[in-house]
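Suppose you are handed a protein chain with no further information: no name, no annotation, nothing but its sequence. What can you learn? This example shows the usual starting point.
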Amino acid sequence: MRAKHVPMRTCIGTQTQHPKREMVRLVRTSDGHVVIDLTGKMSGSRGVYLSRSARAAETAIKQKRLEAAFEQPIAKEDIEAIRAYFGQYQEQ
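A reasonable first move is to predict its three-dimensional structure. Written in structure tokens, the prediction is:
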């Protein structure tokens, strides 16, 4: 019997690969905002993945990897929403 295929995605913060289901997707909406896509199916012109880690989110923000991936500056309120969401995933 063949093993089931597990889709892998690369974290934009840590540059490591993880199964897609263990990641959080961020999407640039048509109005230019960056939002967290908990369903993984939200329509958007671009999407990136982050590990469920506050460290990964901070790295992506500080090194401007999100801005590079989305090809635009990220609004302050969007950055604060990302920090607030990923803040719940403090390292154990």
